[in-house]
């Protein structure tokens, strides 16, 4: 489907991640990647067809889905391609734009890594939708991938998704009580992780009201 030459997907460190695969594959390879690596998956062909129908998206038979996924049919309609893109929460030019395909494969691979820290498939799917929306607003995929990698780094430092969820769902007083026993390093890590999530969701940076009302101590 893509007209550009194949370019390997790389991390910022320059190493290819096998799970991401090379960009520039056929429609069948692209569809197979999404079926296997969607945060809610992996999906069988009948599952995709059933969920397309349940969501009111353009659907077709499980047999045709099998043909598309295995390269036996390579002429999907524009309506079906757009429906599949919406179902997998990727931009609609995923099928034809190699740069978009490469970026989204990297995003999906990184999101799946958060399952180890307690993130649910539905939470990750919603995050993927938000990332796709932010890309449509002009935010670069590099910036979004960088934020995901920073979140992953913070989680490796001990700040889990469950901890972040508790912080997000608690009132200020409860947050302060939970934070009382944290070390300075732990507080900094939690604050940095929350800030990364705010950036991923397109929210402005938080400002310290106390620092604005009184001068910093030296």
Key terms:
218 residues; mainly alpha; 11 helices; 58% helix; elongated
Verbal overview:
The protein is an all-alpha fold and 218 residues long. The radius of gyration is 20 Å and the shape is elongated. It contains 11 helices and no strands. The termini are far apart. α5 runs antiparallel to α6 (121-136) and α5 (98-113) runs parallel beside α7. The longest helix is centred in the C-terminal third of the chain and has 17 residues, at 184-200.
Question: How do you describe this structure in short?
Answer:
The chain has 218 residues and is an all-alpha fold.
Number of helices: 11
- How much of the sequence lies in strands comes to under 5%
Largest sheet: none
Q: What's the gyration radius in Å?
A: 20 Å
Structural class by helix and strand composition:
mainly alpha
Topology:
Layout: H1 27-37, H2 45-54, H3 62-69, H4 78-88, H5 98-113, H6 121-136, H7 141-156, H8 161-169, H9 172-179, H10 184-200, H11 209-213
């Amino acid at each position: 489907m893509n007209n550009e030459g194949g370019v390997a997907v790389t991390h910022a460190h320059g190493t290819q991640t096998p799970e991401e695969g090379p960009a520039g594959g056929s429609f069948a390879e692209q569809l197979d990647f999404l079926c296997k690596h969607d945060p809610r998956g992996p999906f069988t062909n009948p599952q995709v067809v059933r969920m397309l129908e349940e969501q009111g998206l353009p659907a077709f038979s499980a047999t045709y889905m099998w043909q598309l996924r295995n390269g036996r049919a390579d002429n999907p309609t524009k309506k079906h391609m757009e429906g599949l893109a919406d179902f997998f929460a990727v931009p609609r030019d995923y099928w034809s734009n190699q740069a978009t395909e490469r970026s989204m494969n990297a995003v999906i691979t990184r999101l799946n890594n958060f399952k180890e820290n307690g993130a649910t498939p539905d939470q990750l799917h919603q995050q993927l939708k938000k990332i796709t929306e932010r890309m449509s607003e002009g935010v670069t995929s590099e910036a979004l991938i960088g934020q995901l990698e920073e979140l992953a780094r913070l989680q490796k430092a001990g700040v889990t998704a469950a901890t972040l969820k508790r912080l997000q769902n608690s009132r200020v007083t409860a947050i302060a009580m939970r934070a009382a026993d944290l070390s300075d390093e732990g507080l900094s890590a939690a604050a940095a992780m929350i800030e990364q999530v705010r950036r991923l969701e397109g929210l402005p940076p938080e400002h310290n009201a106390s620092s604005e009302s009184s001068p910093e101590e030296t």
